[in-house]
Amino acid sequence: MGLLQPARGPHRPRRRYALTLVTDFNGLAPDFLATVAGKRVLVRSDLNVPLDGGRITDDGRIRASVPTIKALAEAGARVVVTAHLGRPDGAPDPAYSLAPVAARLGELLGAPVAFASDTVGASAQETVAGLADGDVALLENVRFNAGETSKDDAVRGAFADELAALADAFVSDGFGVVHRKQASVYDVAQRLPHAMGGLVATEIDVLRRLTVEPERPYVVVLGGSKVSDKLGVIDNLLDKADKLLIGGGMVFTFLKADGLEVGKSLLEEDQLDTVREYQARAKELGVEIVLPTDIVVADSFGDEASARVVAATDIPADALGLDIGPVSGAAFAAALADAKTVFWNGPMGVFEQAAFAEGTRAVADALTRVDGLSVVGGGDSAAAVRTLGFDEAAFGHISTGGGASLEYLEGKELPGITVLEEEGA
Ligand code: ADP
Ligand code: MG
């Protein structure tokens, strides 16, 4: 299936790549869907949303989980959703209850969601037993049970046995956790007939297009706070991309490696040699590494009143860089203008504050104009796109899983995907 050619022109609404993928061939496998009527299907979703008290501040992950749950319910399954929220200590903790998520999920599905107040105990068993065909239940935070994340295979396996006992089949749809070898992601798939959910299938398909024969020009934009978080990605994408644009906190290690002074900006001295190696390799491969030529600096972190633009060669010793400057924002946008494939991870600046958000806005805006596949990866980058007011539909794909997409792009094996390729019980 080919890419639908979008209409030309910067402001014309376009048909988007990821949407074609979702509707055309990335849903749940039809032969699996045909088997689920009347069956209890355990779905691992990623419902790990930010909460402010009991209020959900960004329901993106819940919305992304709806299509798979809905497809199963419409096919007549008794859908049992399991998910985590935050990092509780392997024991029940009301601060991390999924109860508000159950309510929001119900609103989005347009049908009530039964909520079990435990993970695999009496409440879970009763709730599942009470489901009719087409009903949906959500189990309490799976990390309230220490077995979920245990490093001990036997402990994890025992918990997976209990989860598996609640269902006849398993669907893995929590993309944000597929890089984790956890009971509800990995071990349960070994115990039940299983299928890949539509969200995971879409994410994997998009990531594959970023690594296997990407359409060219292929531009990778990296930012965010730390170089050390992104080294694996740079390493793996350097010989695939045509251009690498660097901003965010990590750029100062690159500028320093070029011999510039970076004042009090974020700097990872211990990565300077690695960065120099990348620069040498990029040169050999003919990959262009584009660094900003102007920087928004401030006297101290978060001090918006002192924000001013300086040349990258002129960062004052007592200031720190908190965004790429306007000339660089325009240059990055120009470098993206003819791209056919773009992967962007990591904000260009401290976008949480207006004075340092323009670089991120310029890159996000350029991505919305890409005539090809544009992918946003990373939790903060996705949040930036939304808080800066961009329409999510203007991007080819916004990944729901930061860590999982980075590990995939680093070339690592994802246990939650590998296990789906094995036979179920
Ligand atoms: P993602 O979650 O998209 O992978 P990261 O977690 O790597 O992104 O980085 C996001 C954070 O980086 C943001 O909170 C942002 O404020 C911070 N950041 C961006 N530029 C700078 C900078 N110049 N100095 C310090 N922090 C920065
Ligand atoms: Mg982050």
Structural summary, described in words:
With 425 residues, this protein is an alpha/beta fold. The protein is built from 15 helices and 17 strands. The chain has a six-stranded parallel sheet, with helices on both faces. A six-stranded parallel sheet has the order 11-10-9-15-16-17, with helices on both faces. Helix 12 links the parallel strand 15 (341-345) and strand 16 (373-377). Helix 3 packs across helix 4. The two termini are 34 Å apart. The structure holds adenosine-5'-diphosphate and magnesium ion. Residues 378-380, 402 line the site of magnesium ion (MG).
What is the topology?
Layout: H1 17-24, H2 30-33, E1 40-44, E2 51-52, E3 55-56, H3 60-74, E4 78-82, H4 99-109, E5 113-115, H5 122-129, E6 136-138, H6 153-164, E7 169-172, E8 194-196, H7 198-211, E9 218-222, H8 227-237, E10 243-246, H9 251-257, H10 272-285, E11 288-290, E12 294-298, E13 308-311, E14 320-324, H11 326-336, E15 341-345, H12 358-368, E16 373-377, H13 379-387, E17 397-398, H14 402-409, H15 415-418
This protein binds adenosine-5'-diphosphate and magnesium ion.
Number of helices: 15
- Mean pLDDT, as a whole number? 92
Topology, number of strands: 17
- Describe the largest sheet: 6 strands, parallel
Summarize the structure.
This protein has about 425 residues and is an alpha/beta fold.
Identify the notable features of this structure and list them briefly:
17 strands; disordered N terminus; binds magnesium ion; 15 helices; six-stranded parallel sheet; alpha/beta; binds adenosine-5'-diphosphate; 425 residues
